[in-house]
Amino acid sequence: MLNRRRLLLLSIIMFILLITASCGSSLDPTLRSQEGYIVDMTEERIFVISYIDREDIGELSEEELLEKSVKSSDDRDLIAVWYNVSDVENYEIGQYVEVRSREVLDSFPQQADAAGVTVLDEP
To answer: Does an H or E element contain 13, and which?
Structure first.
């Protein structure tokens, strides 16, 4: 009788642990995201700037784009970032994208490895 109670209690505990583990969020809390336009590219990286207009890309210099971005932003975090991507051929200058990343180097413009890039419709 005592063994049955222990077995039942152990089964209930295991069931609760299983349910708790499966209900956890799969979102990575260390992921950061930025939306903006691709304004430049190299063989391995894309340069994304937020808080600018698409028309500005061909009209303003990189320095002017950065200045406009900083002035339009409340926060300098993730407004101009060079992202390392696996295949730059998937992207074009002028595309509006959301880029997710983890570690971002504190330079200006910042640098990071892209964990994922999604091409979005323009805002």
So the answer is: helix 2-22
Q: Are 104 and 34 in contact (CB under 8 A)?
A: no
Dihedral angle computed from the Cα positions of residues 30, 36, 37 and 43, in that order, rounded to the nearest 10 degrees = -10
Mean pLDDT over 69-78 rounds to: 80
The angle at the Cα of 74, spanning 71 to 79, to the nearest 5 degrees, equals 70
105 within 8 A of 45, measured Cβ to Cβ? no
Q: How many CB atoms lie within 10 A of CB 34?
A: 22
Q: Which of 37, 27, 32, 33 is nearest to 120 (CA)?
A: 37
pTM of the predicted structure, to 2 decimals: 0.74
Task: Tell me if 102 sits within 8 A of 31, measured CB to CB.
Answer: yes
Beta bridge partners of 32: 101
Cα separation values, 112 from 16, 56, 79, Å? 39, 24, 12
Residue 26: is its pLDDT beyond 50? Answer: no
